[in-house]
Specification:
With about 300 residues, the protein is α/β, with parallel strands linked by helices. It is about 40% helix and about 15% strand. It starts with a helix and ends with a helix.
């Protein structure tokens, strides 16, 4: 009887739009609906209460949204549905715990579509916000592009809402483990103040306007001050997966980070290159080196090569 019911549910699901689940209720509850709900803990390890997660979904698939909403509410979460791109300020005001984006709604994953720019803007402006792309069929290049723009995960439709929720839970859980309250104090180095609670670095009151990747990079380097970190290790820990042969992403981001550091704190050098190996974070005041130099008195009068050689 159970096997016949599963076959009937699967047959019905094939006639629905991609991304939708069959709305099975009552005695004909689907196998997926009978699965136990996996909840995030109500409190953190230190006893701090965890507020209900606020989830925003940019999607136009009403069937998928309906099923997802049921499962989200069963966990005590709050779901806000958006039919298209919304201003970053609106996302900030919602104080979201996670964001799900269907790039097809924004015109992506077609090359040059505005959805790519919007994804990059969201990830740069809200680096601490877990972002999951949940959209239709895609290529490897499209998935890699989204992840490198700042997305935390990519899930292809048709998919089960329970899997989407599980991925969101995993990202949120890793974030809580990676940044417990005891480690949120500012890290001071030279003129630099690295604030994990704001995902930003400051020189005095001036923000360096770091992107998400740039902040994760400087936090990693500064957290291992004095140690030489290999490029492959940096890539693995900042990007989250193995570095491809010939990939220069680490070097590009270090160069951008150095430029911002030098503009904000020109008398200090923070990141040092170990050629063929990687990078080391060690604040050094270059102004002190200039102060130690012995001044040279030039002869009075017209300055010529013959005069200097006398």
């Amino acid at each position: 009887m159970r096997d016949r019911l599963v076959d009937a549910v699967l047959a019905k699901s094939r006639t629905l739009r991609p991304g939708c689940e069959p709305p099975v209720t009552g005695e004909r509850a689907s196998v997926a609906a009978s699965q136990p709900l996996v909840r995030l803990p109500a409190t953190m390890s230190n006893g701090t209460p965890v507020a209900p997660l606020r989830l925003a979904v940019i999607d136009g698939d009403t069937g998928f949204l309906h099923v997802l909403d049921k499962r989200v509410r069963a966990r005590g979460w709050q779901q806000t549905v958006m039919r298209g791109a919304v201003p970053i300020e609106e996302l900030v005001a919602l104080r979201l715990g996670a964001l799900v984006i269907d790039l097809a709604v924004l015109g992506a994953p077609e090359p040059g579509a505005p959805g790519w720019d919007y994804l990059e803007q969201v990830c740069a402006a809200l680096p601490a916000l877990p972002v999951v792309v949940c959209t239709g069929p895609s290529t490897v290049a499209q998935r890699v592009r989204a992840l490198r723009l700042g997305a935390d995960d990519w899930l292809a439709k048709p998919c089960h809402p329970e899997e989407l929720i599980a991925r969101i839970e995993a990202i949120v859980r890793r974030g809580r483990v990676a940044a417990p309250p005891t480690e949120r104090a500012a890290l001071e180095a030279g003129e630099l103040s690295i604030r994990s609670d704001q995902f930003q670095a400051f020189v005095g009151a001036r923000s360096l306007d770091l992107t998400r990747r740039e902040f994760e990079l400087i936090r990693l380097l500064a957290g291992n001050a004095g140690q030489v970190l290999e490029r492959e290790a940096i890539y693995q820990r900042v990007w989250g997966y193995a570095m491809a042969h010939g990939d220069r992403s680490v070097d590009v981001f270090v160069r951008k980070l150095r430029q911002k550091l030098e503009r904000a704190s020109p008398q200090w050098r923070y990141i040092h290159t170990h050629f063929g190996v990687g990078y080391r974070f060690a604040p050094e005041c270059v102004a002190d080196d200039d102060a130690d130099a012995v001044p040279v008195e030039l002869p009075a009068g017209e300055l010529t090569v013959d005069g200097l050689l006398q």
